[in-house]
Amino acid sequence: MKHDPHALPIEAPDAFSASLQLIDVTQIPTRGWIAMYVHDCLDSPAPDVKIAMSPDDQGITEYYAVGSDATPSSGAAIFLNVPPGLVTLTATPATLGDASIQITVNVAAGTETAVNAFPTANP
After folding, report:
1. Structure pTM?
2. DSSP single-letter state for residue 107
């Protein structure tokens, strides 16, 4: 079987619960979560990218990697306890200083919203 480089890993419920315990977060059942994978112009994972979310909510937990405030080499970011509804994610690579990606997703309670994000000409 050929590996699809754009496939998003989805965790089984038990593995997801174990991951939450590692980062000391409780996922609220009436909220959803976003798994975002940021890519660069060459379709490689994009490290050192900060992601802003709108609307912002105090209850959201943003997680990139231990001790980091931007995407690691995997280009991954997780947002936990996101209120249901439309959310706009804006990605800004440190190397550019300007947004390269803006995408709006619909988050549902109790589910994961998986996002593969690629740069656009005018985010």
Report:
1. 0.81
2. E
